[in-house]
């Protein structure tokens, strides 16, 4: 994974009232220092210009914006932040989502996928969306992960998307994603664990260059069930999945007690930890790598990365948002795109 993608990366707007515009501008300001891959923002130029004016003062920087098409973006990137219009106006002020938020955020995601599928972009990088704002507007997917899978459907077949949070120190995958803990328990099956881990193992090889990925599988219950006395899912659901995976030749280990599998020495024993539910996976990675962890969607026919954090309404428009996770997402998308070609 050495070379940068030749095609620019399509970066979505995210929630217009969140820190997406801020971290986009802050990342672009560091383009030369970090030799960032070229990217363009899909959104409303007027909104970006307003935010650039506010942040320019806070950051003491000159921010130039170029209104371009996707094919003009790479050439424009050095001198100006390229913005490709989606046709959806975004009127939200920092920290205050409004009725324009959901249509603007969704149009941007749709267009990014269209661009990557048409070969105009090398990968999709998404800025954070506010899930509750989208749900109130009728969005019926739990998050980007499932929406992107639907946009990737071919011949009516929707691929299984897998959420991976990656950092140089830890990679994690939740088998069940944005559902209540109660629903996670009912969704958890051996089949879901097997199909998830197959995708993880295949893409750690093809997209991350790990020849024989070591996958650690967590238990569900305290102490991985303590031989069945603290819960039986380890024996009835997870163990059969591990058997099937090992029969496939996948180096899958577990079920491991979730409370002891993330300390530094334990992390050296595997390339990715596959966990049974959202918080089991995301708490450890956001604890050890909040600033630079990247959310990667596996299982799609294109590359998608994202910062690990959310919309941070409390600091939008202030210049306090740290762009490190977005920068890591841009760099990882570029490396993955280069590895693929
Ligand atoms: N990929 C995505 O689209 C994601 C979206 N979200 C959404 O974001 C919204 C807010 O979620 P929260 O749980 O409040 O998490 P959050 O990550 O937005 O904020 C948590 C805390 O971290 C701080 N923070 C976050 N990013 C930061 C940055 N780059 N620099 C400095 N400080 C930062 C915030 O100011 C806040 O104090 C929710 O609607 C959630 O669904 C959350 C995670 C990922
Ligand atoms: N907790 C991770 C998160 O909210 C990101 O989800 P998605 O929008 O990437 O599906």
From TrEMBL:
Residues at which substrate binds: 144-145, 286, 295, 304
Localization annotation: Cytoplasm
InterPro entries to which the protein is assigned, alphabetical: PdxA (IPR037510), PdxA_fam (IPR005255)
Keyword field: Cobalt, Cytoplasm, Magnesium, Metal-binding, NAD, NADP, Oxidoreductase, Pyridoxine biosynthesis, Zinc
Cofactor(s) for this UniProt protein: Zn(2+); Mg(2+); Co(2+)
Entry binding sites for a divalent metal cation: 178, 223, 278
Coiled coil (UniProt feature): none
Reactions accelerated catalytically: 4-(phosphooxy)-L-threonine + NAD(+) = 3-amino-2-oxopropyl phosphate + CO2 + NADH
Cofactor comment: Binds 1 divalent metal cation per subunit. Can use ions such as Zn(2+), Mg(2+) or Co(2+).
Record-listed E.C. numbers: 1.1.1.262
Entry-linked Gene3D superfamilies: Isopropylmalate Dehydrogenase
Single GO MF annotation: zinc ion binding
Pathway: Cofactor biosynthesis; pyridoxine 5'-phosphate biosynthesis; pyridoxine 5'-phosphate from D-erythrose 4-phosphate: step 4/5
One GO CC annotation: cytoplasm
GO term, biological process aspect, one: pyridoxine biosynthetic process
EC supergroup of this enzyme: oxidoreductase
Oligomer status and interactors: Homodimer.
Function: Catalyzes the NAD(P)-dependent oxidation of 4-(phosphooxy)-L-threonine (HTP) into 2-amino-3-oxo-4-(phosphooxy)butyric acid which spontaneously decarboxylates to form 3-amino-2-oxopropyl phosphate (AHAP).
Other noteworthy facts: The active site is located at the dimer interface.
Family note: Belongs to the PdxA family.
Name of protein: 4-hydroxythreonine-4-phosphate dehydrogenase
Organism: Bradyrhizobium niftali
Phylogenetic lineage: Bacteria, Pseudomonadati, Pseudomonadota, Alphaproteobacteria, Hyphomicrobiales
Designated gene of the protein: pdxA
């Amino acid at each position: 994974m050495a070379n940068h993608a030749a095609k620019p990366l399509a970066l979505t707007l995210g929630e217009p009232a969140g820190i997406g515009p801020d971290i986009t501008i802050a990342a672009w300001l560091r383009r030369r220092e970090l030799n960032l891959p070229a990217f363009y923002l899909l959104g409303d130029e007027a909104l970006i210009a307003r935010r650039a004016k506010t942040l320019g003062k806070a950051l003491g920087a000159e921010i130039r914006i170029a209104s371009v098409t996707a094919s003009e973006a790479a050439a424009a990137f050095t001198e100006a932040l390229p913005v490709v219009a989606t046709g959806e106006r975004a009127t939200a002020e920092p920290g205050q989502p409004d009725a324009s938020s959901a249509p603007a955020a969704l149009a941007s995601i749709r267009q990014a996928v269209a661009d990557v599928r048409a070969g105009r972009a090398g990968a999709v990088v998404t800025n954070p969306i506010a899930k509750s704002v989208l749900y109130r507007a009728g969005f019926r997917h739990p998050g980007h992960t499932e929406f992107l899978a639907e946009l990737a459907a071919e011949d009516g077949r929707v691929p299984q998307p897998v959420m991976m949070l990656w950092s140089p120190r830890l990679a994690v995958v939740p088998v069940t994603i944005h559902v209540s803990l109660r629903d996670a328990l009912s969704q958890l099956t051996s089949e879901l664990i097997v199909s998830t881990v197959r995708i993880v193992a295949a893409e750690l090889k093809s997209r991350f260059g790990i020849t024989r990925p070591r996958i650690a599988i967590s238990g569900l219950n305290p102490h991985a069930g303590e031989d069945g006395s603290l819960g039986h899912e380890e024996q009835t659901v997870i163990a059969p999945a591990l058997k099937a995976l090992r029969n496939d030749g996948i180096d899958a280990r577990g079920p491991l007690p979730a409370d002891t599998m993330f300390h530094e020495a334990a992390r050296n024993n595997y390339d990715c930890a596959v966990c049974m539910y959202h918080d089991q996976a995301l708490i450890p990675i956001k604890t050890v790598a909040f600033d630079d962890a990247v959310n990667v969607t596996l299982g799609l026919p294109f590359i998608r990365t994202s910062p690990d954090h959310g919309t941070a309404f409390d600091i939008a428009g202030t210049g306090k948002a740290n762009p490190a996770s977005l920068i890591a997402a841009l760099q990882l998308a570029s490396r993955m795109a280069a590895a693929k070609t």
